Amino acid sequence: MQLAGRCLCRSLTFSFSGDIVSTGHCHCESCRRATSSPVTTFFCVATENLAFQGDTLRHYASSPGVRRGFCGNCGSPMSYETDKRPGIIDLYVASLDDASGVDVTQHGFWNERVSWLHCEDDLPKREG
């Protein structure tokens, strides 16, 4: 699969070629606060198959062993990496130029979801 995406200001772009490792809607408080959204949708890929172009991806250590990447110009959230999954990077589905080929397969941190958003689908819902 080949995918491409960008930040809001277009100064940071990425391209990916290969298999998607996993996908999911994350409901954890940390992702909600990092994106100011009630839920964040990720696709996870091998870092060796990903290339960023343009401005340098900046990082924020949001918790021990976790780096969140963002555009240093416009602040758009771009990535999530954890020491628990070396060689894997999570990217935001909403940053893709065309997300039509990405099928989301699960909900994560269902126990941390906001009460006012109702998700009615048949996807598996993991606690934590």
Poorly predicted ranges? none
- Radius of gyration from the alpha-carbon trace, in angstroms: 14 Å
The N- and C-terminal alpha carbons lie at a distance of 29 Å
Shape: globular
The third-level CATH topology is glutathione-dependent formaldehyde- activating enzyme (gfa)
Number of strands: 10
Organism: Shinella yambaruensis
Keywords: Lyase, Metal-binding, Zinc
Family: Belongs to the Gfa family.
InterPro entries: CENP-V/GFA, Mss4-like_sf
Summarize this structure briefly:
The protein is mainly β and 128 residues long. 5% of the residues lie in helices and 44% in strands. The chain contains one helix and ten strands; from the N terminus they run βββαβββββββ.
Keywords:
128 residues; mainly beta; glutathione-dependent formaldehyde- activating enzyme (gfa); three-stranded antiparallel beta sheet; 1 helix; 10 strands; 5% helix; globular; CENP-V/GFA
